[in-house]
TrEMBL record:
InterPro entries (UniProt xref): Knr4/Smi1-like_sf
Superkingdom of the source species: Bacteria
Protein name: SMI1/KNR4 family protein
Classification via SUPFAM superfamilies: SMI1/KNR4-like (SSF160631)
Length: 237
């Protein structure tokens, strides 16, 4: 994405201090980085219905839509009326100079944990939106390690042997793989099924994707299931 940073606009230091005061603790290093660079405007990375800007966060707290909480900090306001689940940091699960991202309704209720870190949420979403869905052929499915163990411990070496690199380091619950032939993103929630992740694999044609899936399927400890081809494959091609 050429000149991406030219479309960003950061929050002011005063706005960052105000958010830190609401949090009642030092902000995670990544969140401070995000606010300094994209706290007013995310440019093409902006979400259609979720507002992660510093002014919106401060407005919501000023209007008492959310009460300051030592564990949870609202960082993204969701305007979708059908699913108004807002984004929060969960500081009880701080990791890698960041923290878990979870979702909940403004009126309360349970929390739905979505990513181990805010950095991973932004990176995974951007890779999907600006790369994977632009490729001509893709498939969606799931991986499961049969013994319920660490899926990435099995998946990473196989992908590396197939020529894939991981351009961005992530935690155990999502991954990004890229090669000249194909690209893939995997995901599971922070409290998902052990040894299980969904995936989207994309490339120029189905033959290349089938070769990758065939190699992964040869690993006896790994179960590979494909749920959908986009676009659908006609006559097996």
């Amino acid at each position: 994405m050429p000149d991406l940073q030219d479309a960003w606009k950061g929050a002011t230091e005063d706005e960052i201090v105000q958010i830190e005061t609401i949090a009642g603790r030092p902000l995670p290093r990544f969140y401070r980085w995000f606010l300094m660079r994209m706290g007013h405007e995310m440019g093409p990375l902006a979400y259609p219905t979720a507002d992660f800007s510093a002014p919106k966060v401060l407005e919501c707290y000023a209007r008492r839509m959310f009460a300051p909480n030592p564990r949870f900090l609202m960082i993204g306001y969701e305007s979708d009326e059908m699913m108004p689940l807002h984004f929060f940091y969960d500081f009880q699960h701080s990791v890698r100079e960041d923290a878990r991202v979870t979702k909940s309704h403004a009126l309360g209720g349970g929390f739905h944990h979505v990513f181990d870190t805010f950095r991973e949420k932004l990176t995974w979403g951007s890779f999907l939106a600006f790369h994977l869905i632009t490729l001509p052929q893709s498939c969606i499915g799931s991986f499961k390690r049969r013994d319920g163990g660490d899926l990435r411990a099995t998946l990473d070496p196989i992908m590396e042997s197939l020529g894939f690199v991981r351009p961005v380091e992530t935690g155990p619950n999502c991954a990004i793989y890229r090669s000249p032939q194909a690209s893939m993103a995997t995901y599971s929630g922070p409290e998902g099924l052990p040894g299980y992740q969904t995936f989207r694999l994309a490339g120029q044609d189905s033959a290349r994707l089938r070769r990758v899936l065939g190699q992964l399927g040869c690993e006896s400890s790994l179960r590979v299931e494909v749920d959908e081809w986009r676009p659908p494959i006609v006559n097996g091609v």
